[in-house]
Design a protein that fits this description.
42% of the residues lie in helices and 10% in strands. With 62 residues, the chain is mainly α. The chain has a two-stranded antiparallel ribbon. The longest helix is centred in the first third of the chain and has 26 residues, at 2-27.
């Protein structure tokens, strides 16, 4: 019977996690989001190549 309580515990933990994510999504507040009124941070960085033009970071084209 130990397996019954083990499966029940896993189910409760998964259910709690799913409900938590749904609640966070519905409230619209994630810690990675900017506060209201703050400008959004850019998620991509650029580098300047030898020709002086901007290219995405990690690009090896010259």
């Amino acid at each position: 019977m130990w397996y019954f309580s083990w499966i029940l515990g896993i189910g409760v933990a998964l259910g709690f996690g799913i409900i938590n994510v749904m609640w966070l999504e519905a409230s619209g507040k994630f810690t990675r989001d900017a506060a209201p009124g703050e400008p959004r941070a850019s998620t991509t960085s650029t580098t300047t190549n030898s020709a002086g033009t901007a290219s995405p970071a990690g690009s090896t084209k010259d």
